TrEMBL record:
Signal peptide: 1-20
Main location: other
Record family assignment: Belongs to the bacterial solute-binding protein 8 family.
GO CC annotation, single: outer membrane-bounded periplasmic space
Region described as Disordered: 28-61
Stretches with biased composition (Low complexity): 37-51
Pfam families noted in UniProt: Peripla_BP_2
The keyword Nucleus is assigned to this record: no
Subcellular location: Cell envelope
Official protein name in the record: Ferrichrome ABC transporter substrate-binding protein
Gene Ontology BP annotations: iron coordination entity transport
UniProt KW keywords: Signal, Transport
All residue ranges annotated as the Fe/B12 periplasmic-binding domain in the record: 80-339
Lineage, top ranks: Bacteria, Bacillati, Bacillota, Bacilli, Bacillales
Length: 339
């Protein structure tokens, strides 16, 4: 009996030692704060995940490295909040983004966008010159986007890139659809970019159907009048792009291979267009309009004799973006298809 009691006691002691060893091993394997013994760490909730360096985790999740069209590598936020993209405001608005400042020529901003950009300060590009780095620094952007390589010249890129990551397009206006797709990528809004482009393509398709009876085999010309003179806008930019490349209306032989062509009374008879659209840029071309339209040469033009000369808005016919292009399409349908 005595031997049995001793044997039971020894078995109980052995079991106690095994439990103690197992408890210690589990405690040593529990995650704890770096440099802090597990026994000193506060109790974690059942859902708590193993800790990691919050700064490195945020950098991985919230930034991306990309290359712009000039070959610059830059690290940008995954979804920028404070964007400065002068003269790309139309495209920004199309994607639901309000910039920290908007392009201006002196005090004049792009008027047709002000229902969406009211309260956004203008920053002057008078003379085509980018604003000073000090003026941009005051905006505290987290991403700068330059729509043309011209804006990056003469050390501007180097100065701007010290303020914030700076992406440069070669010429965003020359490939609007491509630049909007890229903007969607840069701003973390690819779905918004795709939807905006799809909506615009539908608008173009519907407009072409309405215009077909009026423009088949016809040509259109767009003349811009300003303080320096008058010139034809070709089919690669602004309203000229919409007329020829989106709506499929033929263009004058004067701009078949050129982006623009100067206009004078001697050149007027060569403007082979059934429809002529005219722009008085910021009201500075009035004298030239009077000179041209008051001449017998102009009055003998087929478009003028048929009453197919239309003055259109300088606010968006010289704009570059889906909103401007949509307004131009509406004008053309109204004027030519009488809708």
């Amino acid at each position: 009996m005595k031997k049995i009691s001793v044997l039971l006691l020894m078995m109980l002691l052995a079991a106690s030692l095994l439990v103690a060893c197992g408890t210690k091993t589990e405690a040593e394997n529990e995650p704890g704060e770096a440099g802090v013994a597990p026994s000193a760490a506060p109790a974690a909730s059942p859902s708590a995940a193993p800790s990691r360096d919050p700064e490195s985790a945020a950098e991985t999740a919230e930034t991306r490295v990309i290359t712009d069209e000039l070959g610059h590598d830059l690290t940008i936020p995954a979804k920028p909040v404070k964007v400065f993209a002068p003269y790309m405001e139309d495209s920004l608005v199309s994607l639901g983004v309000k910039p920290v400042a908007q392009w201006a020529n002196g005090d004049a901003v792009q008027e047709y966008l002000q229902d969406k950009l009211g309260g956004v300060p203008g920053i002057s590009f008078t003379g085509g010159l980018p604003p000073s780095p000090e003026a941009v620094l005051d905006l505290a952007p987290d991403l700068i986007i330059l729509h043309t390589a011209h804006y990056a010249k003469d050390g501007v890129y180097e100065k701007y890139s010290k303020i914030a990551p700076t992406y440069v397009f070669n010429n965003a206006a020359g490939d609007l659809k491509g630049s909007i797709t890229k903007l969607g990528e840069l701003l973390g809004r690819p779905a918004e970019a795709e939807l905006a482009l799809q909506a615009h393509e539908l608008k173009v398709k519907e407009a072409k159907a309405k215009l077909a009876p009026y423009v088949e085999g016809k040509k259109a010309a767009l003349i811009n009048f300003n303080g320096k003179g008058m010139y034809l806008i070709g089919g690669n930019y602004f309203g000229g792009y919409v007329l020829s490349q989106e709506l499929g209306i033929g263009k004058s032989k004067l701009v078949e291979t050129e982006n623009s062509a100067d206009v004078s009374l001697e050149i007027v008879p060569q403007i082979d267009a059934d429809y002529i659209f005219t722009i008085n840029y910021q009201g500075t071309g009035s004298a030239f309009i009077q000179e041209l339209t008051g001449s017998p040469i102009w009055k003998s033009m087929p478009a003028a004799k048929a009453g197919h000369v239309y003055e259109v808005s300088d606010k968006y016919w010289t704009g570059s973006g889906l909103i401007a292009y949509g307004k131009i399409i509406d004008d053309v349908v109204r004027l030519l298809a009488h809708e």
